[in-house]
């Protein structure tokens, strides 16, 4: 039986309290050490079970494990991207001027950067329960859209989604987001590109 890849919880590129007052140290600690760690642990366990099921040619077990692998890999991927897309408000990367091409594209699509933020916040606040809001780009047309996905349980600001949606704009790592915008799919996935190919 081949040993599956083992994933680890990535270190945060800043301290747990570095995003305050916009995101509290309590929330950051909870989501990094508890939620994200659980996704990593559960993903590794599911991949090990899948390797065992594969070695035994147990198709039923393999099929059942796909749900756990997709859910936990999604939690690991989403949180990793999230941590990388944030930066302390005092950082030059938190200034939207560090993403000129992206801001220009957002303004062209929504009329202004502020109108994009309003549209994104409205989508976030419309999520029932837990989920994610995403700015995505269609690879063929290049058009930008705001979409949502369910689950991966983020409980921002102890469920005060309005304050969270307003405050997060102060800690977005625009330099990182600009690099993802300009770099194509590989730049979006970064260190997670290996995991992308296995889900």
Characterization of this structure:
This protein is mostly helical. The chain has 2 domains: 25-84, Helix Hairpins (Orthogonal Bundle), CATH 1.10.287.990; 92-191, minor pseudopilin epsh fold. The chain is built from 7 helices and 2 strands, in the order ααααββααα. A two-stranded antiparallel ribbon has the order 1-2. β1 (131-137) and β2 form a beta hairpin. The longest helix has 31 residues, at 25-55. The radius of gyration is 18 Å and the shape is globular. The model has no long low-confidence stretch (mean pLDDT 88).
Overview features:
about 200 residues; mainly alpha; Helix Hairpins; minor pseudopilin epsh fold; 2 domains; two-stranded antiparallel ribbon; 2 strands
Q: Largest beta sheet: what is the strand line-up?
A: 1-2
Distance between the termini: 19 Å
Question: What's the CATH superfamily of the largest domain, by name?
Answer: Iron/manganese superoxide dismutase, C-terminal domain
- The H/E string reads HHHHEEHHH
DSSP helical segment count:
7
Average pLDDT, all residues: 88
Strand segment count: 2
Describe, in short, the structure shown.
This protein is mainly alpha-helical. It contains 7 helices and 2 strands. The protein has 2 domains: 60 residues, Orthogonal Bundle (Helix Hairpins), CATH 1.10.287; 100 residues, minor pseudopilin epsh fold (3-Layer(bab) Sandwich), CATH 3.55.40.
């Amino acid at each position: 039986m081949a040993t599956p890849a083992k994933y680890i919880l990535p270190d945060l590129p800043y301290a747990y309290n570095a995003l305050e007052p916009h995101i509290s140290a309590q929330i950051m600690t909870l989501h990094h050490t508890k939620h994200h760690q659980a996704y990593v642990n559960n993903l590794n366990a599911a991949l090990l079970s899948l390797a065992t099921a594969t070695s035994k040619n147990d198709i039923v077990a393999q099929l059942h494990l796909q749900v756990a692998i997709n859910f936990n890999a999604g939690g690991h991927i989403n949180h990793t991207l999230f941590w990388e897309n944030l930066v302390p408000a005092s950082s030059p990367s938190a200034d939207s001027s560090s993403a000129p091409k992206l801001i220009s594209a957002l303004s062209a699509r929504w009329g202004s950067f502020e109108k994009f933020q309003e549209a994104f916040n409205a989508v976030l606040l419309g999520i029932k329960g837990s989920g994610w809001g995403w700015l995505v780009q269609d690879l063929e047309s290049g058009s930008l859209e705001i979409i949502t996905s369910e689950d991966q349980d983020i409980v921002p600001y102890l469920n005060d989604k309005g304050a969270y949606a307003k405050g997060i704009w102060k800690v977005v790592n625009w330099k990182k987001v600009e690099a993802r915008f300009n770099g194509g799919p590989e730049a979006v996935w970064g260190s997670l590109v290996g995991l992308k190919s296995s889900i």
